[in-house]
Amino acid sequence: MNQLLVIGTIALLILWFGWILLYGLRRGSLALILRVIWIVPLVMTFFPEIVTVEVPTTVSVKPIHVLLDDSESMKQGGWLAKGEATIENLKEECRRVGCSLKITRLSSRSEVVNSGYTPLDEVLSSWSYELGSDPWVVFTDGGNQKPKIEWSKPLSGIGAGEQWPRGYIAGYVDRTLDNVWIETATDTLFSFEGKNMVVTVDIHRNTTENDLPVQVQVASGEQHLATANVTFRKGDGQIAVEIPLPPLNRGNHFVSIEALPTATEKILWDNRVHRNVEVLPNTIGVLHLLGSPSWDGRFVRRYLKSEPKYDLISFFILRDPVDHQLTNERELSLIPFPVERLFNQELPNFRSVVLQNFSLYQFLEPSYQKNLVNFVKNGGGLLFIGGPRALNSSDYRSSALASILPFETEGSPIKMNPLSLLRPIPLSQNRSGPYYDPDLKFKVEAAQPDQQSRDLANVYDDWLHFMGDFQQAETLQGLHHMENVTFKEKEYTPLLNARLEDGRTVPLAVASYPGKGRALWIFSDSFWRLAMDPSVSRKVYYDFLNSSMTWLLRQEFRKPASLQELSLRAEDTKTSFSVFVHGPAAGYLAEENTWDVSVCGFNVPYRSLLVQKLGSQSWSISGSIPAVLQGGTICSMVLQGNHTSFGSVEARVGGQVPETYRDQDVPFSLIGLESLARLTQASLSVEENNHDTSLLEWVGRVTGSMGVTAPSERKSMTDFYWVFKSWWIYLLFLAIPGEVLVRRWPHLTTVKRT
């Protein structure tokens, strides 16, 4: 480089000497100076600069999907223009951080937008399948043509990200426009027949500058139920209101709760909500049949009498059919057992029957036995408690009871002579089958049912709480030998075991599901000892019986199957529906012969339904009925099932066909924006002017490593053009025309003569 510098200097001196001879000293020197000035940047490129730079290993430019709501309400509010301006700023930001925009207009996805409707939910559902794992932005006022239906479930979680939400909802609302809306905390409400209930609702308003009185009304169909007057004070945006309702009839009701519109309110679609109310019976008929007086019978009857909700009819068998008093029946103080009236007329009025130390074959004719068994199979509850008179060979081989027993025994049914009813049953039974041993001592242990059976017989979970007290109790005495029988596979749930003194384990209590009913089989009559044990609270025994009866009467809070969120959609030639099914019985929804479905009075073939599993106890059902229901129509869905693993279940839920609103009726929806953000887990920003600041900040977060992906490498590079990074260097090139002018000056100033 030094040699080139010396050669260049000598060349310039020779050039200077030549130009002096040609142009004179002044012009030649000036021309040389100008030549040196503009040639200096070129010479400096021969002296490069060494720089260290980060070279990316890969370059990846990912898109940001944008959905722009260009409905009529967005145009009238001036929000469409603001959204378009924000999109332009977003494009500039993407050029800087390395992203690209894929813009979709709502009107390009649905023609009804030009007719004054906003199918936001439908477009979002189809648009979401294009997003993949890319970030997305939605510019909308939250208005939807069917605002009362929930956002589609496919949108769930599409805006969630690892560190930052990958979804952004740019919302627009008019906070100066008066609007009152109503919300309730629960979807299903409960009450008891003849009892008042209280409905709690939240009333919201959009503006908070002034006091505002609001009236809330509750109705069931055309029947007005209650009215409540509330007043928003200045600054209040939400008020919780408790509305007492009068007693309702037993069954399911679909009630409406409405906040009457104020004088200046124009948005009315969100002033009313509907909720399901289930009214349960206040008193429950229970028939208690005790084969003979006993301690256990006394404590069971005491519990049933102490509960006001039970309407108890109890009979103690004090006289056997073979007893002959040699006197007139009217002269006896003991009345005869009214078996004919009970089992031919009154039995349907009961909800549950308690058979305690009772022999069906001895005290009931075959027709009465069948009536009792049919009562259980048709949905009744049966609490069986063993004892010396229970489970005689005639009961489990010859009576109708054998058809609902959860176990089988060896040997064929015995053909009994009807006259054998007159024979007394000895307490010392044959040593075969499930005979009762009054001297058998045992400790109570929890059985180990599989999880599915445990979920169905959730009384097991209640009984687990008593295991500590059961272990502290003294040894119980008196048990049936259930190790001599074979339990029917998949038709029972083991609940308790008896640990004998020799270490053997014998079934003590099981649950079964005969037909549509439920049954609890306790193969001992010595649980009364728990109530008398000084180391155990008597309340434990009462709680044990209470949980048993609660499960038998299907009053447990953990229902085998429940329906939630019935969604109805009227289409061109049909009405589609969808609903969520929860509970342990839902695990059997794949077995189509088990279920019957009715929607809005139409029986729907099970094979035509789309049944999807969402979890171990959560499923969804969707389908359609061949009718187009009017918007606002209220109807219900009923799901009925019958299976040997859970008996029968019936679940129902009410719903309303959503009405379709034009943009002018739903100009914006803050409720819709907030619920959409919760469902998608996206970031929500509700602005009155623009979203430039918050949106660009979000873009910077989600695109932090989008344009150039790590890892990168540091390399040293030779920069020959480093001198041209300064702007002033380009001014030196003005010396080129200056040199031309100096050297050509005589030619430019001389006037040619012709």
What does this structure look like?
With 754 residues, the protein is an alpha/beta fold. It has 20 helices and 34 strands. The longest helix is centred in the first third of the chain and has 22 residues, at 2-23.
List keywords for this structure.
elongated; five-stranded parallel sheet; 754 residues; alpha/beta
Give the N-to-C terminal Cα separation.
54 Å
Strand content: 25-35%
Which strand order do you get reading across the main beta sheet?
Answer: 15-14-16-17-24-23-22-19-20
Number of helices: 20
Q: Provide the residue-averaged pLDDT.
A: 82
Which secondary-structure class do the elements indicate? Answer: alpha/beta
Task: Report Rg.
Answer: 43 Å
Give the overall form: elongated
**What's the total count of β strands?**
34
The level of helicity is: 25-40%
> What kind of sheet is the major sheet?
9 strands, mixed
Low-confidence parts, pLDDT < 50 over ≥5 residues? 412-429, 706-711
Compact overview of the structure:
The protein is of the alpha/beta class and 754 residues long.
List the helices and strands and how they pair.
Layout: H1 2-23, H2 25-44, E1 49-59, E2 62-68, H3 72-76, H4 79-97, E3 99-105, H5 106-109, H6 120-128, E4 136-140, E5 167-172, E6 180-184, E7 188-192, E8 197-205, E9 212-220, E10 223-232, E11 238-245, E12 251-259, E13 272-280, E14 284-290, H7 295-306, E15 310-316, H8 339-346, E16 352-356, H9 360-363, H10 366-377, E17 381-385, H11 393-397, E18 407-408, E19 436-446, H12 451-456, H13 459-464, H14 467-472, E20 476-480, E21 486-487, E22 492-500, E23 505-512, E24 518-522, H15 528-532, H16 538-552, E25 562-570, E26 575-582, E27 595-599, E28 602-604, E29 610-615, E30 618-625, E31 634-643, E32 647-656, H17 670-680, E33 683-687, H18 692-702, E34 708-719, H19 735-743, H20 745-749
Parallel strand pairs: 2-3, 2-4, 4-5, 5-33, 7-13, 14-15, 14-16, 16-17, 17-24
Antiparallel strand pairs: 1-34, 6-8, 8-11, 9-10, 9-12, 12-13, 18-21, 19-20, 19-22, 22-23, 23-24, 25-26, 26-30, 27-28, 27-31, 29-30, 31-32
